[in-house]
Amino acid sequence: MATQDFLVELGTEELPPKALKPLSDAFTQGIVKGLEEAGVAFGKVEAFAAPRRLAVRIRDLADAQPDKPVEKRGPAVKAAFDDAGNPTRALTGFATSLGITPDQLDTLETDKGAWLVYRTVEQGKPTVELMPELVDKSLAALPIPKRMRWGAHKTEFVRPVHWLILLFGNKVIDTPVMNLKPGNKTRGHRFHCPKELIVPTPADYEVVLKQEGYVLADFAERREQIRQGVAQLAEKEASGKAVIDEDLLDEVTALNEWPVPLMGRFEERFLDVPAEALISSMKEHQKYFHVVDASDNMLPLFITVANLESKDPAQVISGNEKVIRPRLSDAAFFYETDRKTKLEDRIEALKPIVFQDKLGSIYDKSVRVAALAKKIADAINSDPALAERAAMLAKTDLVTEMVLEFTDLQGIMGQYYATNDGEHADVAKALNEQYMPRFAGDDLPTTLTGCAVAIADRIDSLVGLFGINQPPSGTRDPFALRRASLGVLRIIIERQLPLDLQTVCEWAEQNFTVLTEKNTASTVVDYMLERFRAHYDEQGIGAEVYLAVHARRPTRPLDFDRRVKAVEAFRQLPEALALAGANKRVSNILTKQGGDSIGETVDNTLLQDTAEKTLAAKVEEQAQKVLPLFEQGDYASALTSLASLREPVDTFFDDVMVMADDEAVRDNRLALLNRLRNLFLRVADISLLPTAS
Fold it and tell me: Which residues cross the membrane (predicted)?
């Protein structure tokens, strides 16, 4: 089958920068999915995305769908003809519906008799007929929250559309899409090349735009050019290092077709303002990259990326310096003003701010969190007074001028202002650390005071919202309780804190008077333990290991984690499969014979067979060895030791009849199995692991 390259380009007004890459990816995936469903063969797929265009190139696209054999079954032979051998209405109706005569049908023999069938070959549609519809469907399915209309057109898209290329080889597919007549003409840079450019073939697309149109259509190429240009400019002009935030780099890439990095300066006096405030102002509002020296100290420099090659770049730089100056002046003014009022004096200002209608104000939450943080600090051998103080001040920076203007600085400015107020270093640091980890993989609190406040704040939200029956549901999680749960688990595990979730949640529950749900603390603990599944899945630990530990419901996260790591290590041992199978067998036997009513005291005088005597001795020997290990939390060593029971367990089941006729002997054997199983249950329910087939 012949192949040609295919190109589609949709030209638009400037697309939303943060949405450009997702739109490009979705557009490409939609076309690929359509081709796969249509059964059309194709080669390499290349996506292009720039502020005024979305494009996809498909290499080696087949010129048609493959022909497809079709078989349609009609009536049974015995129902197709009457006694005289003439076609019945069932047969003529079937043939008529297909536009054929009965003699064009074949006979199909099956186990249930003979049937009449129509066999033919359905010819594949030409690719040029398929592509306009595939493109249209892909555009219609793009993740656009709110589409717009323009002029007198009924067409809707994220931005007005102006031109369309549909090329198959060097031929234009002339079927309209989005009310645009396709052609082979694109448009260059809005200022450097404000005219139409002919694209002879799909292979010429990015070359024409780059060489004639001053447009770098390849998003990845443009991104890397910006990265290198910004880094080189900082090093060349200031012997410094540009700090390149990946999200900002993506946004700047989506804003520029022909990127040209330029360096500007600002007054050194602004360096007295916390660097985070300067960076936020430059990054969020102006899309600038900041520059640091070899010691990571901020320099009075910024790098902007212009979308053109100016004949007078100094004018462009000067314009940007004029724009950033008032923004940095605002930040300096806010900082100076805020420091005149202590955080302690701002506590009252939290009372009118509602946290949640039923759970009260931010002030009410602060009081609860302070009480909880005090208990947590005591439990983790930290200073309860510092934790209580930090929790009461934790949200006060929300009412400062700086945070009201730059909301992403909450906590960060709190630390600066607390230090300015003369608060204890741990208290000041906790005001920032309360929000850690802010996202997956983020840093954790470094101080125990910060840990206490961070945990208390999250647990208060979890218990409060579950207690008024407002848990997360589906994708709806307005208070980010899933993230809060994972944050608590990470802090406790990675900082190795001896906290019990059940105890902490009960402490939190005592601080509320408005909760309507029963057993809120236990419900929250169950919810948080469920978050462990995703936590370990990211680490490559199978769900069966998580479930084995979860079955025992250990409520101390550090203990839960140690058990999971121990079971994961045990699972790698050659004895694991057999012992998991034995545990499953033992569990089934015990469940059928009374379950929890069965004791584990073994009477050695009732042991008869050599295999059960050996197993009883080995179990007792292991109990003496592993019980101290369990007390120390050394589950890995304990399970490794218990793995030695595989051989006596296998021999026992091969040689001994558990359900003996003598009731005393039978009960004694059940007690032995129960003692065996309970040793493993001190860690996890090993029976839930995969077993040998």
Answer: none
